[in-house]
Specification:
The protein has about 230 residues and is mostly beta strands. It contains no helices and 18 strands. It has strands at about 5-15, 20-25, 35-45, 45-50, 55-60, 60-75, 80-90, 95-110, 115-120, 125-130, 135, 140-150, 155-165, 165-180, 180-190, 190-200, 205-210, 220-230. β14 (about 165-180) and β15 form a beta hairpin. About 10% of the residues are buried.
Length: about 230
């Protein structure tokens, strides 16, 4: 559904010095699929290293990085398919490993104001083995819908995801544009509530901010995106 090139950076400050950073670039396709490439990196704070007698031996960190190549294509004006091909790397202390996986998604425009979608994540992996035991990312199935309201100024969305070992979880959100450049947002899931905004400025630039309540502490997320070039109808 893109018609312009887009580049985006996002930072999320989670808890206990844990942070998530991502960078992505996508270009729309005409006869060819739309393509994107992204990097997502999760880094922990410092953990204390000890020996069998519990003597301190300094600290170590844990990190995970995923590289994603994305392709998406509209089969009809109301039906689109997409896929992620991803390489995941994990490092704990002096050990490191990597694995490959895939995500699949579909989106349909059922009415001018109603979109539905579904996705299956971590198809066939990634599978990681730091030392002796192999661990696989759990398969996650997600489905949801988004409804445009108030002559396009508002949006409400609901989705349900199901992961192996975690069961089904519900996520809900809403957005309202109080003026052409500023939108307010709110959300809810099993961890608690969230709120934020989007501010559009310049020609194709946007700033996003959100704060989310979590049992381990307040999370802050900030994103910056720029849209340029591309196709115009």
């Amino acid at each position: 559904s893109m018609n312009r090139n887009e580049v985006r950076f996002e930072n999320a400050q989670l808890y206990e010095e844990t942070s998530l950073n991502s960078f992505g670039f996508a270009v729309p396709g005409s006869r060819w699929p739309s393509l994107g490439v992204a990097m997502v990196s999760l880094g922990s704070g410092a953990f204390e290293r000890t020996n069998e007698l519990n003597d301190p031996l300094g600290t170590f960190r844990e990190g995970e990085t995923a590289w994603l190549l994305t392709a998406a294509k509209s089969l009809t004006p109301g039906l689109s398919l997409g896929a992620n091909f991803k390489l995941v790397q994990q490092t704990v202390e002096s050990f490191s490993t990597n694995g490959f996986g895939m995500d699949l998604g579909v989106q349909a425009q059922l009415a001018p104001s109603l979109r539905v979608g579904a996705s299956v994540m971590n198809v066939g992996g990634p599978k990681l083995m730091l030392r002796d035991v192999e661990e696989a990312y759990p398969t996650q199935i997600r489905g949801g819908a988004a409804l445009t309201v108030m002559q396009g100024r508002g949006l409400v969305a609901l989705d349900v995801d199901n992961s192996e070992g975690l069961g089904a979880r519900i996520h809900a959100g809403a957005e309202y544009w109080i003026q052409s450049s500023l939108a307010l947002r709110m959300g809810w899931d099993h961890d608690g509530g969230a709120g934020g905004f989007r501010y559009r400025f310049g020609h194709g630039y946007a700033l996003d901010y959100a704060a989310a309540d979590h049992p381990l502490g307040l999370q802050h997320r900030i994103g910056v995106s720029a849209r340029f070039g591309g196709f115009f109808a």
